[in-house]
Amino acid sequence: MQQTFQLQPPQIDVISIQSQVVYGSVGNGIAYRTLLKKGLEALQVPSVLFGCPPYYGAPSGGVISAEWFSGFLEDLIARGVMKRTRAVIVGYLGDVGQCHILDTWLQRVRAINPQIKIYIDPVMGDYGEGVYVDPRIVNYYRSPFLRLANGLTPNGFELEQLCGHSLVTCEQTLHAAQALLNDTTEWVLVTSAPGIAENDDELGLLLVSRNQVQSYTHPKIKSKVKGTGDMFTALLVSHLLHGKSLNDAIVTSGGEVCDVLAEAEHFGWEEIGSLRALR
Fold first, then answer.
1. What is the C-alpha separation between 29 and 26, in angstroms, rounded?
2. I want to staple 42 with a disulfide (CB 3.0 to 4.6 A). Which of 14, 78, 140, 267 is the partner?
3. Bridge partner list, 152
4. Which UniProt keywords apply (predicted)?
5. Distance in angstroms (rounded) separating the CA atoms of residues 244 and 187
6. CA angle, 20 as apex, 78 and 10 as ends, to 5°?
C-alpha cells in the first residue's frame, strides 16, 4: 500500500508586519533584507506600500486596505504558517483599523502557537519630527494592545507618547518603561533613551525587564539615512532567534547599526545601500 504524507508549510523564522517601499531603507525595506542577511526565513506583510519614503515628497502608493491587510494575515493562518513561525515583528502601521485587526489576529496566533514570540516596535514618531502617524494609533498603543508583546522597542519619544509626559532623567525613563511590563511583556528596550547618554556624541539605550535594568551607550554616527530603528529591531530579533542572550543581542545589534551607518556616511548614500558591514 502506498503511504501518503500530508504536506505542511516550511518553518518560517519571522513574519515582519510593517511599511514597505519599492525604494528606500525604512520598514520592510531594511528589516526584510536584514533578516535574510542573518540567515533567517522571513515573510513580509505590508501595512502601507509606497514607491519611496514620504520624506522625498508625496510618494506613489498608500495604505493597504483593511480587506487586503486582514486577508493577508488570514491567509497565513489558513495555510498553517503560523503554527510553524517562531516570531512576529510589528512596526509601522498605516491606520488605526490595522491596529484592531492585528489585536484580534495576534491573540489568535498565540492560541494557535503558544511558543511564538511577538515583538512590537510602536512606531509613532521621533524627536525633531514629532508624531507622524494618525493620533488614533497613538491612543491605541496606550490601550492593552501592547500587552500582547513579549518585547517592546520604543524610542524615547515614543515612550513619552505612551506615558503621556516628557522624560528627561534616567529615573523617569525607567519608571515609564517599567509600567509597560506585564505577565506577557518580558522586557522593554528604549532606544535614544532620555537620561542615559553622557554627552551629545552618544546615544543611550535602556533595558528594563522583570529582574534587570541595564543601560548601554554607543557612538552617534552623523549619517542622515533613515530606518535605523527598523533595522535595529530586525537585528535584535535575529540574534535572539540565533540563541544570543538579550544583553549580547543588544550590544551586537547596536554595534552593527553603527557599522552600517558609518558605511553609508563614508559613501555618501541617501539610503542604506548595502549590508556588507553586518557581521
1. 5
2. 14
3. 120, 188
4. ATP-binding, Kinase, Nucleotide-binding, Transferase
5. 15
6. 35
